[in-house]
Every structure is written in structure tokens, then in C-alpha cells.
Write a structure and sequence with these properties.
single chain; 260 residues; alpha+beta; YojJ-like (1; two-stranded antiparallel sheet; 8 helices
Length: 260
């Protein structure tokens, strides 16, 4: 690695300068959010301890270095426990930045794209599926959880789960944020057997049943016909054309955000 300059026994490369710049920017952001609170004093002690520990490590002062690292570890844990309110305030500031919102929006768009591609493939192959997209409410009290997955949403993972040969294909998949949290979940069934002249199968009754009691979007793919439906707030949009599914899903997501 090319050396840019040297200060005493310390050498600096381009990546070292970049590393220092990033850390400095983060520390400046933390300072701005905590400058009116006592938390800043404790944070200063932590930073000082960490800085001195690097110096003592370079000088090979092992005992002093161990003491400083222990102090910084204890101070950091104490900081998190004592100043929860200030930390929450800082995180709220970070989440309101344009950069954070941009990356979050990108991740959500990627997740929707993966779900759309999977649903279209499931529809073409007449593979039954039930996908719950959670919103503001937790599914803990309304859904019988199946198998814990905790995997990033992807077309391949959804198709693998609902493959008829998979032990997870029965039941619903729960999507929380950009993660498939659970598979093989049991949803509460509605007592309605007919909706707008349509006879409801088990999956459609499960989707309607959950939408009556939970703020969520539930996507259904019929095993018999391959038709796609979406349940929301006790309503069922039945037999959505495959070429209109992505537009319909995005429209419902946008409407929810605007009315939130």
C-alpha cells in the first residue's frame, strides 16, 4: 500500500486518511446531536480512552493498553444504558436524513421487485402461495408462527418455500421489512365462504380473515387457477391480471403511505 506521509512512527496511506475522514464525520454528527447534553462528556471520555489505547498499542505498552481498553469498554456500556434517550434522539436524526431515506427506499423497491417476480412465476406454474406483507402491526397475536426463516427477501427463496415438494409450502410466509421472518404460518380463517359471488378457497379465506384484524397486505396465488388476489382491510381484489399485478401492488403501497 502506497505511503502518503509519515508522522513520527506513524505512517499514513490514502485509505488511512479516508478512514479518519469517515470516523471524524461520524463523530461530528454525534457531537451535533448530543452537544446540549451531559452525554457528550461521557462520550469524550470514551473517545479519549480509545485514542490513548491506539497510541499505547503502537508503543507496545501492553499493561496500560489493556487498562485503557477495559475503561473504554465499561464506559461504552454505561453510555448506552444511561443515555438511551440521547441515543434514540441521534438515531431519529440519522433516519431523517436524505441519504438514509434514499437507501431505505431503494431496499424497499428491491424487495417489492423480488416479490413481484416470484408471484408472477408462481402464477404461471399454478403454485399455491400466501404472502403476508406486514405494516404497522405485529403478527404475534394473530398468526400461528411456523418455521423461523429470517432470510432476505428474494425470488429464489420464495419459490423454494412454496415449491410443492418443500416441507414449508403449506401455510403463509410473513414478510417484515425486507426479511422473510416466518414460513408455514397458519392464519385465522374468515367465516365467509362466498365473496362477491366467488367461492373462496382456504387460502383466500385465510387472507381475508387476517386482513379483517391486521393492518397488512396479503397476496394469494391460487393453486387451481394460478390467479392472483390481494386482501386488505377486509376486502379482496380477486383475479388480478398478471401484467397488472405489479402496478396494483405498488398502488396499494403508495396509497397506504399517503394515508399514513
Amino acid at each position: 500500500m502506497n505511503e502518503l506521509f509519515k508522522i513520527g512512527f506513524l505512517t499514513f496511506s490514502m485509505f488511512d486518511v479516508l478512514d479518519i475522514f469517515i470516523v471524524g464525520s461520524l463523530l461530528y454528527a454525534v457531537y451535533n446531536s448530543l452537544k446540549d447534553s451531559i452525554a457528550l462528556q461521557v462520550l469524550f471520555i470514551i473517545i479519549l480512552s480509545i485514542g490513548l489505547s491506539f497510541i499505547t498499542e503502537s508503543l507496545n505498552l501492553k499493561s496500560v493498553n489493556w487498562i485503557l481498553r477495559t475503561i473504554s469498554d465499561i464506559a461504552l456500556i454505561s453510555f448506552i444504558i444511561i443515555f438511551q434517550t440521547e441515543i434514540r434522539k441521534f438515531l431519529l436524526i440519522v433516519t431523517e436524513t436524505k441519504i438514509f431515506k434514499y437507501f431505505l427506499k431503494s431496499r424497499i423497491s428491491e424487495t417489492i421487485d423480488e416479490i413481484v417476480d416470484a408471484v408472477k412465476e408462481l402464477s404461471k406454474t399454478h403454485t399455491g402461495a400466501l404472502i403476508v406483507l406486514t405494516r404497522s402491526q405485529s403478527v404475534n397475536m394473530t398468526v400461528t408462527k411456523g418455521v423461523h426463516i429470517q432470510g432476505i427477501v428474494s425470488t429464489e427463496l420464495i419459490l423454494a418455500i412454496f415449491n410443492p415438494k418443500s416441507p414449508l409450502h403449506d401455510g403463509a410466509v410473513i414478510v417484515e421489512n425486507q426479511t422473510i421472518a416466518y414460513a408455514k404460518c397458519l392464519l385465522p380463517l374468515t367465516l365467509e365462504l362466498v365473496k362477491e359471488g366467488k367461492h373462496l378457497g382456504t387460502r383466500h379465506r385465510a387472507a381475508l380473515g387476517l386482513s379483517n384484524i391486521l393492518d397488512a397486505l396479503i397476496i394469494v396465488v391460487s393453486e387451481e387457477t394460478g390467479r392472483i388476489s390481494i386482501a386488505e382491510k377486509g376486502d379482496l381484489e380477486y383475479n388480478i391480471p398478471i401484467e397488472k399485478f405489479e402496478e396494483t401492488l405498488n398502488k396499494k403501497i403508495i396509497e397506504y403511505k399517503e394515508n399514513k
